[in-house]
Specification:
The chain is an alpha+beta fold. The chain has three helices and six strands. Strands 2-1-6-5-4-3 form a six-stranded mixed β-sheet. The model has no long low-confidence stretch (mean pLDDT 93).
Amino acid sequence: MTPLQVFRTSFRAYVNKDRATIESILADDFHFTSPLDNRIDRKTYLEICWPNSENAAGFVEVFATETNDRACIAYVGTTKGGKRFCNCEIATVRDGKLVSVEVYFGWNQPHKVPDGTHSDDIGAGHP
């Protein structure tokens, strides 16, 4: 599989709550980084982040690309409760396995800042 195919498989596993698939595509030396996590290892990712799959209802790709061993997907995610949010993620893939994932939080939808305006006090990220 290409890096983008591997990465898309991880998104499907998340929505389908398919732990066996996610474990099969995470490299032993996998690391995960987000505004809330600084290069946590595979074990910690599965303990802390994987349970969030219970809240995932879907992901709609806005943009996806790959270069060499890296893939990038920007998406709108939806929770079971109907909350929508935008994120961008970059993955490094080696031998068909995710070696690292970096998540860049975007904004919630609908956007909390009125169209055409700026706000300094909205905060960063989303839970």
